[in-house]
């Protein structure tokens, strides 16, 4: 497989830099995407300078392994063309000349589309995923594809094709998954935003671990077209369309203020993802906090998952105090069905064939692959093998013991939406701890359910950073609203950003 995979030594970096770029003082990580676009349009900086700054930061942070497929030369060429468009007075898009990254599991025409699977090692995307095409049309420039977990099915960013992605705040810790490459790239200041996907916390978990903002849109708002299971022939598969109802693409950004304008660009029907049927009218993110009800659930109990750590719940409690001091109606909240988060998620995605997806339709014998893995001969990652084993052998037994009745899911969804209405938000942990060390998630496979629950409920959820813990790792929370009330989550995130921005202005570089 011949690709422009990013594996540069410092010596090669210096040679490449001398050939293509000069140093620039413009620091991308200090600015949001739309501020950068405005600076480019007003002539304060050129797109070429911004893109080369992003590339330089990427190369300096190559140990992160955030960007795994680079298109640097093409991005610089596109940046020059973007500058010429402005000079000639042509009308440009809202993200004109701004660099970003795309999760490798989303199709980008002409580039590898392995989704981290050795079974797809020769696969290239024949066209752009819908959200990628829309962001490009808005003028944004892709500098490269970011890493993900194998087939985007694990909350740690590691796979047999590209290896693991590290946390920008400490290389010994995971960036989270499955959109860990984008979160690490944004957290390290390589780009102001990236586009990821979320089927069980895959935007919010890495955003939480890397200290950035991530938004999982409401179900039926943003097309998944071009990403598993709606990739290749999946668009014609009825089960794939059913499962895709609980998955969606969404933004990961350095600043909360970018989330809503990015969402507006990405949202709306494309005629291919059958779950996205209309585009609701977006309300303003300018809210009167005294008219908002804030429901706090800082220490929920989730069966099979770890309990929420004190250094996760305490800053969430502080958030409640902050909103109360601003005049919001703040109250504690819980629901008896929260404990069933894992089973609710499993029920929602039960039409997903893990074995078919992991093997790219070629079939997998998980016990045989586990033996091969121990002998270092398997093409699969250990999480992929264990997930297949669980679905083939443990899940049928579990179904006999635990009800997978959709009434539980639909009942909880109705109760939460009735509670929140059109002016309420719910604040909960994204994950029961800060980022674990590499490989440790294998010991706690159910922890993703704190985030995955809201995929099953199709509710919008925004991950927000809340400073750093005693180990220097980001703390976080997620903000949930009723369906199609995405603006409430994001508006609350913007308010929180103002509160915590002083502790989040250092670079992870």
Task: Describe this protein's structure.
The protein is α/β, with parallel strands linked by helices. The protein has two domains: 13-277 and 284-346 and 407-503, Amidase signature (AS) domain (Amidase signature (AS) enzymes); 351-403, no CATH class. It contains 17 helices and 15 strands. Helix 10 links the parallel strand 11 (293-296) and strand 12 (329-332). It starts with 9 loop residues before the first helix and ends in a 9-residue tail after the last helix. Residues 502-507 have low confidence and may be disordered.
What would you say about this model in short?
The chain is α/β, with parallel strands linked by helices. The chain has helices at residues 10-20, 33-41, 47-60, 72-87, 130-137, 180-187, 204-210, 238-244, 259-266, 310-325, 341-348, 354-358, 366-374, 382-401, 406-420, 449-456, 486-500, and strands at 67-70, 99-103, 141-146, 158-159, 163-164, 166-167, 170-174, 193-198, 213-216, 248-253, 293-296, 329-332, 424-428, 461-468, 474-480.
Question: What is the topological layout?
Answer:
Blueprint: H1 10-20, H2 33-41, H3 47-60, E1 67-70, H4 72-87, E2 99-103, H5 130-137, E3 141-146, E4 158-159, E5 163-164, E6 166-167, E7 170-174, H6 180-187, E8 193-198, H7 204-210, E9 213-216, H8 238-244, E10 248-253, H9 259-266, E11 293-296, H10 310-325, E12 329-332, H11 341-348, H12 354-358, H13 366-374, H14 382-401, H15 406-420, E13 424-428, H16 449-456, E14 461-468, E15 474-480, H17 486-500
Parallel strand pairs: 2-3, 2-8, 11-12, 11-13
Antiparallel strand pairs: 1-3, 4-5, 6-7, 8-10, 9-10, 9-14, 13-15, 14-15
Helix pairs in contact: 3-4, 6-7, 11-16, 13-14
């Amino acid at each position: 497989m011949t690709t422009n995979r990013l594996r540069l030594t410092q010596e090669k970096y210096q040679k490449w830099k001398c050939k293509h770029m000069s140093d620039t003082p413009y620091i991308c990580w200090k600015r949001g995407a739309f501020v950068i676009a405005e600076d480019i349009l007003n002539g304060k900086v050129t797109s070429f300078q911004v893109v080369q700054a992003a590339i330089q930061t990427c190369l300096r942070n190559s140990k992160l392994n955030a960007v795994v497929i680079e298109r640097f030369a093409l991005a610089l060429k596109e940046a020059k063309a973007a500058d010429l468009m402005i000079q000639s007075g042509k009308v440009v898009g809202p993200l004109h000349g701004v660099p970003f990254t795309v999760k490798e599991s989303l199709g980008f025409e002409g580039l590898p589309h392995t989704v981290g699977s050795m079974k797809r090692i020769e696969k290239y995307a024949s066209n752009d995923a819908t959200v990628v095409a829309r962001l490009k049309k808005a003028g944004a420039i892709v500098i490269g594809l970011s890493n993900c977990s194998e087939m985007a099915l694990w909350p740690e960013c590691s796979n047999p094709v590209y290896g693991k992605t590290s946390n920008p705040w400490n290389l010994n810790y995971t960036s989270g998954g499955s959109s860990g490459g984008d979160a690490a790239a944004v957290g390290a200041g390589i780009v102001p935003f990236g586009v990821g996907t979320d089927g069980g916390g895959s935007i919010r978990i890495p955003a939480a671990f890397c200290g950035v903002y991530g938004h999982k849109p409401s179900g039926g708002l943003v097309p998944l077209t071009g990403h598993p299971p709606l990739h290749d022939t999946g668009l014609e598969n009825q089960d794939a369309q059913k499962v895709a109802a609980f998955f969606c693409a969404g933004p990961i950004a350095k600043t909360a203020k970018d989330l809503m304008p990015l969402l507006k660009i990405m949202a709306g029907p494309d005629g291919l993802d059958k779950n996205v049927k209309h585009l609701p009218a977006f309300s303003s993110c300018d809210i009167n906090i005294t008219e908002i009800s804030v429901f706090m659930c800082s220490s929920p109990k989730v069966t099979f998952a770890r309990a929420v750590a004190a250094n996760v719940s305490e800053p969430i409690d502080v958030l409640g105090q902050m909103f109360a001091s601003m005049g919001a109606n703040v109250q504690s909240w819980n629901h008896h069905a929260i404990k069933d988060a894992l089973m609710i998620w499993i029920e929602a995605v039960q039409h997903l064939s893990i074995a078919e997806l992991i093997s790219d339709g070629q079939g997998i014998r998980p016990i045989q692959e586990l033996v091969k893995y121990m002998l270092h001969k398997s093409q699969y990652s250990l999480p992929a093998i264990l997930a297949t084993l669980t679905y083939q052998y443990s899940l049928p037994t579990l179904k006999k013991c635990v009800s997978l009745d959709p009434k539980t899911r639909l009942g909880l969804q109705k109760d939460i939406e009735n509670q929140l209405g059109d002016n309420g938000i719910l604040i909960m942990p994204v994950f029961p701890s800060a980022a674990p060390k590499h490989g440790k998630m294998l010991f706690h496979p159910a922890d993703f359910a704190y985030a995955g629950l809201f995929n099953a409920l199709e509710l919008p959820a925004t991950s927000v950073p809340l400073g750093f813990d005693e180990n220097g790792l980001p703390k976080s929370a997620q903000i949930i609203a009723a369906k199609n009330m995405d603006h409430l989550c994001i508006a609350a995130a913007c308010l929180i950003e103002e509160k915590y921005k002083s502790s989040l202005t250092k670079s992870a570089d």
